[in-house]
Amino acid sequence: MARQHWLDPLARKLLQATGDLPPDPVKAKQTAKQKAKQKLSAPPTPAATWSLDVNRATPEQWQQLPGCSEAMVDVLMRLQRGGVQFTQLDDLVLLLNLPNDLVERWTPHLVFRWHGDAPVLPEQPPLDLNAAAPTLLEQTLNWPKPRLQRLIQERRLKPFEHLADLQERVCLPPDAVEQLIGRVSFGARPSGPSLPPRG
Question: What are the residues whose beta carbons fall under 8 Å from the beta carbon of 141, sequence distance 6 or more?
Answer without folding.
Answer: 127, 148
